[in-house]
Amino acid sequence: MPASSALRRSLAVIAALPLLTLAACGYGSQAKDDGTAKVAAGAKKIDGLDKVKIGYFGNLTHGTALVGVQKGIFQKALGATEVESAIFNAGPSEIEALNSGSIDIGWIGPSPAINGYVKSNGKNLRIIGGSASGGVKLVVNPDKIKSLKDVKGKRIATPQLGNTQDVAFLNWVADQGWKVDPQSGKGDVTVVRSDNKVTPDAYKSGSVDGAWVPEPTASKLVAEGGKVLLDESTLWPDKKFVITNIIVRQQFLKEHPKVVEAVLKGSVETNKWINANPDAAKEAANKQLEQDSGKALPADVLDPAWKSIRFTDDPLASTLNTEAEHAVKAGLLQKPDLKGIYDLAPLNKVLKAEGEPAVDDAGLGAK
User: Fold this and answer.
1) I need a labelling partner for 257 at 20 to 30 A (CA). Which of 71, 166, 246, 295 fits?
2) Rounded Cα–Cα distance for residues 304 and 34 (Å)
3) From residue 103, how far is each of 83, 226, 274 by CA, in Å?
4) d(CA 75, CA 81)
């Protein structure tokens, strides 16, 4: 198949995926309000805006959003401008919500951010900050897979075609010298695209032999008897790679820069609190997960998962560029022009006020 046809097919599949998620939960389920983020008496709206709509996943890799919402840190930073949150299961559905204006700001992985930027010809979103690094592992059935070379010929789950972990796994497979068709997932390894919610059941039933997944799914598999065969962080310089970014609609950034700055201030304060209070932060994240999904994580899943994630304001821009190169190498993306995907001026303003060093956009800043 010609490369252009393969790309069109890839984008068509990726574009269709949000519809499956949206059919189940609209543009994401609304977070439950337990009164932890009440507007302070005498607080004023920023820019006169009634509310700001934020989106995030029910994953621990989105811990900044989970903790910031749970502890009311975002609401405090926004004064009387109400925080309204929506929870998503996959990046494409969040991008769809951003494009439609159903959310204004979101926490999201690098691959959907890249895809969203490229598909809109650089006209819709900007990455305005970092959030997390790490928290992705290859977990396998130790009875079937004893070493990395044993992965060949096995069935390995990833969350979704073209998502961040899918791209990472396809790149790792290629580095082993193995061949896999990126669309069908068939080849020397069979890649099974499976929602993180159902992957543990697929593992228990034996329909997959392992999975390349983010936390807490990885630790859920370990709790079911799986073994961590590879931590993705070991494949990156200094063991750092972006797993979660903060994105914003360009129009919203242009119209409400002070609101965006306030959200970033809340994010910086949240990450500072998380890193200073890891145990309390872990419990806060779990409490918000319970409110959002109706179910908290057990300690044997929560504890190891939380330890593997680093929370950072730095978007680790150079690693996003590398991840884009991996998507090109996998045949899921034509070489993109990412110049302009970042606008870190608001974040660096906040960091300067906090006495923290500025972060770098790796030459991919706004044109």
Assistant:
1) 71
2) 27
3) 11, 37, 25
4) 8
